[in-house]
Write a structure and sequence with these properties.
Length: about 140
């Protein structure tokens, strides 16, 4: 029923931006290597409905993933700030995600948050670390 719900909600053609929030990432080079269920069942819906950004947590780090061949595809953003211990970059998991056609834009082993600004023509985000320093910035344009 959740897949049907997501499909229905994303089918609205009259949205400026399509932004999803979830707990488990589809792609990760941290402790968990992403969720196969999200990759197999939700990512196809994101592609079908042209979702711009998927924000997740679960991992205790900050990650940004894009599709290698299509940077206009969904940006996958992980902001896992509330964990007990940090999750380090796992090169084997990174290579596994690359096998799914993904490209790691940044991986920051730090607690922090994202500061997001949405306008009619762009979405910008900054990863801010636990010392309130901007450690990564990206802007997605229409």
């Amino acid at each position: 029923k959740m897949i049907e719900f997501i499909d229905t909600e994303l089918s609205d053609p009259d949205t400026d931006w399509k932004i999803m929030f979830g707990h488990h990432p589809a792609y990760s080079a941290g402790n968990y290597a992403g969720s196969g269920t999200i990759r197999d069942e939700v990512v196809p819906l994101m592609k079908k409905h042209n979702v711009d950004i998927y924000f997740t947590g679960h991992e205790h780090n900050q990650e940004h993933w894009q599709t290698k061949d299509d940077p206009k595809d969904t940006d996958h953003i992980t902001i896992g700030s509330g964990g007990y211990g940090l999750h380090s970059l796992d090169k084997d998991k990174q290579h596994q995600m690359e096998g799914y056609g993904m490209d790691l834009q940044t991986f920051i082993e730090d607690f922090g948050f994202a500061y997001v600004v949405i306008t009619e023509n762009s979405i910008s985000w900054k990863f801010v670390n636990c010392n309130l320093e901007t450690v990564y910035e990206y802007t997605r344009y229409r």
